[in-house]
Amino acid sequence: MQNVAIVTLVVILGLIGWLSLKDARDYQEFKNAQDEDSRLAFYRRWTIYPMLLFGFGGAALLAWLGRTDALTGLPSEFAAAAARFSSAQEPAAAATSETMLGMALGMTLGLVVTFYIWRARLRAARRPIGDIEALLPRTRREVLAAIPLSINAGISEEIFFRAALPMLAFVATGSVPLSFAISIVSFGIAHWYQGFKGVLATTAMGALFAYLYLSSGSLLKPILIHILIDLVALAIRPAWSIRMNRKLVSSQKEVAL
Prior knowledge:
It is a single chain. The protein has eight helices and no strands. It has one domain. The longest helix has about 35 residues, at about 220-255. The protein is elongated. By secondary structure, it is mainly α. This is CPBP family intramembrane glutamic endopeptidase. It holds the Pfam family Rce1-like.
């Protein structure tokens, strides 16, 4: 099984590299697209393809490995790594209603704090890290198209890069640290279209998501945080900018009258 896993891992890493280059070329074409319909088609394509490749593909890979349990919990192979984090989650069987309530309250508080932090960032209008400005929606229809893109990215990419790829790499190498290093670097390379700075930023985010996965013992936390980050970047912040621009144009018209 190990030899087959090694070959499969090499093939998949090669495909990730090829897809990264293809996405970079497609993104360059997208930058030149000015009409809304062409941009909407791009959003739809980058929603469907990752869903098939990373979401369903990741689940199929785990099924082939016989480790679909990684979708709902932390595999035993990763337990030793998870034990190094002081915030490692207690076993699901031992979870009490008080524990679940505490987790819910903590997550709610975290989301509230995150909302106010990002609202301040929205007002500051800081330049995003990496070459993603062309990807940011320009109209309300594009904002609506970016929402499923963001949600799917959070789900599909976490299934593949946090569960499926590390499990395959572990079967191939027998090393948990190396397995997650491979998945984290691959996650960054998969965002090659964002340029070198974007790759560094997404690699760092991949490390954060891996930590969230190992420390919580579930894909749920990294999925939710991933979705939140993407929604802020690709939907909430652009929607705010569109709203402010329309108010500015409206006020300028009123002054002109």
